[in-house]
Each structure stands twice: as structure tokens, then as C-alpha cells.
Amino acid sequence: MPNIEFKIQIASTLEQTLSAVNNIDFLSDAIPGVISVTQKGNNSAEWVMEVKKGFMRRRTSLDVEFSLTTKNNVHEFYLSASGKEIVLKGTISLIPSNEPGKTDVKVDLDYEAFGPLKYIINNVVGEMITEFPEKFNSKLKQFTASRQT
Fold first, then answer.
1. CB atoms < 10 A from the CB of 140, how many?
2. Which helix (H) or strand (E) holds 36?
3. Which residues share a beta bridge with 38?
4. For the chain, which residues make up each domain, given as ranges?
5. Is the pLDDT of residue 28 over 80?
6. Which of 14, 22, 27, 51 is buried most, with the most CB atoms less than 10 Å from its CB?
7. Which pLDDT does position 149 carry in this prediction?
8. Mean pLDDT, the chain, as a whole number?
């Protein structure tokens, strides 16, 4: 299975980041390619993703199961997702940064795409990873500001 692995630092406290990622509306705005998230249960949701490359565009939905563990102030989300054209599993960790007011995010996901989506997604994963920090930080600032008013 191909792997998506990267670490970024975001300009938000751990508490602000946790508040945001626990909000369905935030997730659908902040993650590249995700266009909607619908809560299905306490630990499950449906994500609709759209992957684009040039003139090619493919929309797919994923049933996502997740759980959260916390140890030594590291919050680790375990994800397992499956859809008609993709399966995904792995972790997203939120780690207190050594720099005040910041959080480190570590993403480690394995995925496998099938059918027409396979040819598109393998070409755009790098673009999605590059886009993630800027989009996530921008939406997080908006989310945090809206909670302070």
C-alpha cells in the first residue's frame, strides 16, 4: 500500500486544535479533497472526497471509523476508512510543540485506490500534502476566531 507520511507544525494551541478537529464542519473545510463530512455515530462518519488532476475529476465517499487515545498529552486518532474506490488506515497525532502556542501534527496513513480513482489519486497525493498545512492553518485561524466572539 502507498503511504502518506508527513509532520507539520500549526500555529494553534493543542486545546484549540483538538476543539477544531472534533468539529465536523471544520474537517470538511480544512482537509484538501474533503468536500463534506457527515457524522454517522459516535466514532463514525461519511466523508465525501473529490480528487482533481487537470481535466479529470473523481468524487468518492468513504465510511470512516475512528478512535482517539491520549497518552503523555499526545492525542492519536486511529482512522480506518473504506469506500468503493479507496481504503485508508493509519494515525493522525496531535503533539504539544516545544514552541508556545503551537501544535505538531504527524500524519501516517496507508491507502490503496482502485478503478479510475487509482490513476488520479496517485498523481495528486503530493499536491494534497503540500496544500494541507496552509489550508489547515487558515481554516483553524478562522475557526478559533469564530469561537472567541
1. 22
2. strand 34-41
3. 46
4. 3-141
5. no
6. 51
7. 63
8. 87
Neighbour tally for 106: CB within 10 Å = 15
d(CA 116, CA 136): 28
Give the 3-state secondary structure of residue 132. helix
d(CA 117, CA 74): 34
Residues 36 and 38: their CA atoms lie apart, in Å, by 7
Entry field: residues in the chain: 149
Are the C-beta atoms of residues 144 and 13 closer than 8 Å to each other? Answer: no
- CA dihedral in degrees (8, 9, 14, 18; nearest 10)? -40
Read off the pLDDT band of 57 (50, 70, 90): confident
Pick among 3.30.530.20, 3.20.20.70, 3.10.120.10, 2.40.128.120: CATH of 3-141: 3.30.530.20
Hey, which bits of 25-114 come out as E strands? 34-41, 44-53, 56-71, 74-82, 86-96, 103-113
